[in-house]
Amino acid sequence: MDITGVYSVYLVISVAMTIWVGRTLYRNGRIFLIDAFHNNEEMADSVNHLLVVGFYLINFGFVSLFLRFGTAPESSKEIFEYISFKFGVILIILGGMHFFNMFNFARMRSKAKRRGKQRLRFDDEGEYNAQEEKTLESRYSRAKLK
Q1: In a 10 Å sphere around its CB, with 0-12 CB exposed, 13-18 middle and 19+ buried, how is residue 111 labelled?
Q2: 31 occurs within a structural domain
Q3: Secondary structure of residue 128 in the 3-state scheme
Q4: Is 62 inside any structural domain?
Q5: Domain for residue 101, yes or no?
């Protein structure tokens, strides 16, 4: 197999794996984002789409740049090692990107939940509502006792 065939195999495998991971993140990340944005599906879908686009850009860019590195394989053994090594690095990068996305989803969700609790302490005009504060504190105390 000449080097063009080796590069083609590497690109097909890497692009297919990146697309599969991106679609999985998009489909399953939507649930977290809807929760983080207080059931605002339009906002959640928009952010989810932007995250997936960024994911694809970074990963496809890396796959393209990484194609250049390494010495060209000459034997069948070297071809398998070459493709295996390159694909292994891509899998590690995809795993890292997955954990990076999960970290950001969790951070966005906790930030949104904190903001939601803060909003409850103010009325529609932005005035502090002492009664709402007492209600929240009593709920928190009862929940802590359970």
Answers
A1: exposed
A2: yes
A3: strand
A4: yes
A5: yes
